[in-house]
Amino acid sequence: MISLSKFKSLIPTPLLNKLAIECDVNADNHVRLPGQTVFLCLLNGILNHMALTQRMLEEHYTKLIGKHCDHSSFGKRIAGIDADFFQAISDHLYSKFSSMVSNKDLQVLNLRIIDATIVAYSAKLLSFGIKADHGNKGLKSQVKSVIELSDEGLPNLLHICKDQSEFSDVKALGETMKRYTKKGDLWVFDKGCHAHQVLFDLHESGAFWLTPHSAQKLIVLGVLFESDTALPESAPADQDAALVVHRVELASFSGKRSRVKDLESMHIVVVHCYRWDKRAKSWKQLVLMTNLPLNESRDKAGPYTFQEIADIYRRRWEIEIFFRLIKQHLNYDHLTSRSENGIAVMIHMSMIASLLMIWYKQQANINRGWRSVKFWLAENVREWTLYSLKHAQLRASP
User: Fold this and answer.
1) Is the pLDDT assigned to residue 240 strictly greater than 70?
2) Residue at 243 is within a domain
3) What is the DSSP letter of 123?
């Protein structure tokens, strides 16, 4: 276990009280359940239960505080408490951990892997969300969140979708990227976000993107590289050789049927690869596109070799692994509340717990799976919570 003093420094009690004041989460009728106590009970509950319920929150409160608080009080509190309080805690941890692991001096571009994940509920249970027909299972409400992973592997919640148009990733991911993009960003995403307008707008903003080719018509302007090495007939012994670049082209999108003005002015590098499919035990084609500019010798896209471009896209799988982490271990598939605000609170809490788990695994040097990390983290959180409740005043009034 990590020392209590080191753990307390992550979210000091004065900071928790300060955020509670700024977000105004402690009204006079919240003496029993101030925002700080709700946060601590939720964090303990998420780390100790696969499917956290309001009754389990009641049990955690009784165990930690030594007093009784009905589960319905937790339900009402989560439904009404300002979700910005939990987002502020998440933002604080993200910033703190980024500064610990950042290697910005060596980074030319800011890598941002982005995707959306979905939790579906019966439409009868939720009055909001994106409606989708699930066939025999009937109409369901999808809670869709757009999340990014930094180059260091830290997760950041960018957007919780509410509009029906965000059923499409072109809208959900595209508008989110345009809203948060900065010059020098390199966005990596799947081919679901393929609209010319999104790609061109990111390009015009000074950001870069890397994504698989979808159904867009390309105009080939020249061949930059072509391999004369035959693919091995069997599985590659080296895992790093499971993605092989065999042809690279300079191209542009055809603007004849596009509504995007000057689309053809955006030159793109098209990287044709073969990847080894473990299930099919054969090579499958993968075509990647990026708007990174060619260097003078035309053997790199931006600061990267063509093989490095392919390897960067392989990292997109990291966000799928992260989605599995929060759904299998951090309650994301069981969001406890059915209100819009309560679900936002629980999503932020899942992000907080995931940041702590990623940090804890590195700090404690645990080389086993997430289940082991979660077990030891839960022990530390319980110790920290008991200390906070006994030795600090977790009550902040304006």
Assistant:
1) no
2) yes
3) T
How long a stretch of residues is the chain? Answer: 398
Whether 38 maps to a domain, the answer reads: yes
* Cβ-based neighbours of 183, under 8 Å, separated by 6 or more: 205, 206, 207
Which token pair is 117?
């994940």
Find the domain containing 290 and state its range: 212-313
Other C-beta atoms closer than 10 Å to the C-beta of 31 total 10
Q: Which of 313, 345, 378 marks a domain boundary?
A: 313
How many angstroms separate the Cα of 170 from the Cα of each of 31, 159, 205, 366, 382? 45, 14, 17, 38, 42
Burial of 182 (0-12, 13-18, 19+ CB in 10 A): exposed
Q: 179: number of CA atoms within 13 Å, CB side?
A: 9
DSSP state, 297? T
- Dump pLDDT digits (tens) for 315-355: 999 999 999 999 999 988 888 888 899 999 999 999 999 99
Q: Which of 249, 284, 313 is the last residue of a domain?
A: 313
What are the angstrom distances between the C-alpha of 103 and each of 152, 164, 184, 313? 9, 39, 15, 20
51 or 116: which carries more pLDDT confidence? 116
Phi, psi (5° rounding) for residue 216? Answer: -70, 140
Distance CA 132, CA 140 (A): 5
Distance CA 158, CA 91 (A): 11
Q: What is the pTM of this model?
A: 0.91
SS3 of residue 6 by DSSP? helix
Please report, in angstroms and rounded to a whole number, the separation of the first and last CA atoms in the chain. 36
> For residue 172, which amino acid is it?
A
161, 163, 194 from 168: Cα distances, Å:
10, 10, 11
Q: Is residue 173 part of a domain?
A: no
Q: How many domains does the chain have?
A: 2
3-state SS, 1-13, equals: CCCHHHHHCCCCH
In a domain, 75, yes or no: yes
Give yes or no: residues 10 and 64 share one domain. yes
Residues 235 and 308 grouped into a single domain:
yes
